[in-house]
Amino acid sequence: MSIKRAAAIVGVGDVELEKGKVKHGHSVLQIQAIAAKRALEDAGLSKDDVDGIFVAGLWGLPGIGSFPSVVVSEYLGIQPKYTDSTQIGGSAFEAHVGHAAAAIQSGLCEVALILYGSTQRSEKSRTLAGRPPVLTAQYETPYGLPSPAGAYAMAAHRHMHQYGTKPEQLAEIAVATRKWAQLNPHATMRDHLTIEDVLTSPMICDPLHLLDCCLVTDGAGAIVLVSSERAKDCRKKPVWVLGQGESHSHWSIQAMPDLTVTSAAVSGKRAFEMAGVTHDEIDVVQIYDSFTITVLLTLETLGFCKPGEGGDFVSNQRTAPGGDFPLNTNGGGLSYAHPGMYGIFLLIEAVRQLREEAGERQVKNSKISLVAGTGGTLSSTSVVILGRD
Hints:
The chain has helices spanning 28-43, 68-76, 92-105, 120-123, 149-163, 167-181, 195-200, 228-231, 264-275, 292-302, 310-314, 332-336, 343-354; strands at 7-14, 17-18, 21-22, 52-55, 82-84, 111-118, 203-205, 208-209, 219-227, 239-248, 284-287, 368-375, 380-388. The protein is an alpha+beta fold.
């Protein structure tokens, strides 16, 4: 089944942060309500129009627990006809876009609200050791593997061993992303950054330095998808879902089939085939950047460059403002924000770029955007391709 142009994103919303924290001490439910209200207002709709709700949350998140869509729906006063709490980590929201589009296409709902919120920095609750226990953790945790940095560091080491990739090339990604953040007044980190700064920042897990790692912040975001018929009456021009794919290959890093290839090989292929576009037709790219190595592996796996060529591909600030491959244009998880699961913010930025609402960081003549989410320890991926008329 294809969901190409079965649904459109007509509203997006998020909340402002101060030094990585939500303002006024709002709770996780409050910031999700704020983001939802803004997204619905952006679309020219109200909560009474929503009949499908899609929510994922961090494990044991204060105020949410294990039933995020139920708890959030109750708080918002929404009784949906369709609900989805698919949780595959940071790529969950790209998966939600596909699920929502399929539900809309099937007539199961007409107005879908995708939501995420986290107050992990304010709550000081970022304890990944609290992830649900799984049997395969016995092969990692007792031996001191830091989670998740250790897993990503293993992938980085393997790529360096196999292809000769250098730490300086990973640092190129962090520096380019910071340059985008400097154009975004809402980004958490906007100070000048150099490759040397990245390489001399504290080592977190060899070969990944502190500035190779994403931020730890609060944050909330919301997206509204509607049917093609309903899109005609919305406030903003529609951004169409052209293609979507999802997959996962493992949970524990020791079970990853190839440390240099993610499941985007499956999800990306599906999204490109459904959208009917080529790599050269993508104008702006948003890729999950939990770590710099995440970006490098995803670019290769999606086919933007050949295996082992990712380091050269991102060199010379190719992905920075003014480069010919605009990437993570709001500053990404490395410099904008990273509230535990970042995937929804990739989508929000893609929509703003396609609607030409990105201000100083606007990429001119953007008509098609690729969004690639990653979850777990390079475990899950979901790829969405969006386009405007």
